[in-house]
Amino acid sequence: MDITTILSRGVDEVIEKSHLEQALRSGKKLRVKLGIDPTAKDLHLGHTVVLRKLKHFQNAGHQIVLIIGDFTATIGDPSGRNEQRPVLTEKEAKANMKNYLKEAGKVIDIKKTEVRYNSEWFKSKGMAFLIELTSKFTIARIMERDDFQKRIKDGRDVSMLEALYPLLQGYDSVAVKADVEVGGTDQKFNLLTGRKVQRRYGMKEQDVVTVPLIEGMDGVKKMSKSYGNYIGLSESPQEMYSKIMSIPDSLIQKYFLLLTDVSEIELEPLNPLKKLENVNFNPKAWKEKLGTEIVKLYHSVKDAEKAKPEFDNKFGKSKGEIKADFELKKNPGSYAILDVLVEGKLAASKSEARRKIQEGAVTLNGSKIKDVDVSVKLTKGTLIRLGKRFLRIV
Question: Which residues form the Tyrosine--tRNA ligase SYY-like C-terminal domain (predicted)?
Fold first, then answer.
């Protein structure tokens, strides 16, 4: 893995770039840290952006350190939150992390990864440690972070536990002697705090590499299970491919750059200016390629080859109208429109169905549906249309 790729592809910012570049060129084997709190039961493509950056370092021969924050998960990372994150019990955190290594292993080589759990050092430390750690920082500096300032301005509370979180994450870097820490752009405050904690403990400061957050299938909010706009690593090839086909065209280039190994030269036609020049630009064809690449990464070449024809068979060809008859699972009555669109195979997911309604692309017997939460009355012969696809109730 060349140094330019490590420092540029899928990277938002490097602190300190000149120092890290010099370290990479020196031939020194660096200790590169990533911490993940098990706040949910599985990982999605959003998590792979930072895991792939970790893989870049691993491929270049450096020692990557994956910290599972089983202790810090019981506090809750406040990064990017406009309200307090629910506190997890130890039991909940343990249940959530069961699949983490298996799923992370789809991106990085777990056998060559130093896997640590931060309960290793935090559980054995008492009040004296906490007093020592907190004495090295001021409340003023901790409260400088933007998300805290916003919550205070809006009259929302910031708990003392949340204020402690960046210090504890920073101490993880001390515990594993990190030379580099990688994380999403929303983690910048925590990563920089890690540098300060290391300095207070007489260590050299880690360099920091931040990577962009990716939007989910709705194209608006960051990919998250809580928003229902995620693509999970354990989903079937068909689910993965279908969800990729439902993303907005505006995300195609970003997904290719952050989620695949396709070269930037090959992706040149996706440059906005190039797209304007090319009257024959076909976003559907690029989505098909993107879906195939991602299914290859998390399943197999064979699964990727089968995904497109199965999708076409399920959702129809792009030319002409696609018709489907839909048999109600219960007696005629009121049905949530999102359920009908998904069960009737007009949309691959509820998030796609919601987006299409908001775009004004869904009609019921010729009348446009505007409310994503509406329940519609279905009887024999009812016609629902989404773009060129439609279904008739039988």
Answer: 334-379
pLDDT tens column, 165-195: 889 999 999 999 999 999 999 999 999 999 9
pLDDT in tens, 343-366: 877 888 888 888 888 888 888 877
Asked whether the beta carbons of 78 and 162 are under 8 A apart, the reply is: yes
CATH of the domain at 159: 3.40.50.620
Identify the pLDDT of residue 85.
Answer: 56
Q: Which residues have C-beta within 8 Å of that of residue 102, sequence separation ≥ 6?
A: none
DSSP string for 294-328:
HHHHHS-HHHHHHHHHHHHHHH--SSS-EEEEE--
Q: Is residue 190 part of a domain?
A: yes
Total number of domains in the chain:
3
Looking at the structure, tell me whether residues 263 and 142 fall in a common domain: no
Asked whether residue 260 falls in the same domain as residue 305, the answer is yes
**Using CA atoms, how far apart are residues 198 and 352, in angstroms rounded to an integer?**
45
Rounded Cα distance, 285 and 115, in Å: 39
Low-confidence residues of the chain, pLDDT below 50?
82, 318-322
Domain span holding position 127 = 3-211
168 and 122 Cβ atoms separated by less than 8 Å: yes
The widest CA-to-CA distance across the chain, in whole angstroms, is 75
* CATH code of the domain containing 369: 3.10.290.10
Size of the chain, expressed as the number of residues it contains: 394
Question: Which pTM value belongs to this model?
Answer: 0.77
Q: Where are the beta strands (DSSP E) in the chain?
A: 13-15, 31-36, 63-68, 114-117, 180-184, 207-211, 322-326, 333-336, 362-364, 367-368, 375-378, 383-386, 389-393
- Contact (Cβ atoms closer than 8 angstroms) between residue 242 and residue 311: yes
**Residue 245 forms part of a structural domain:** yes
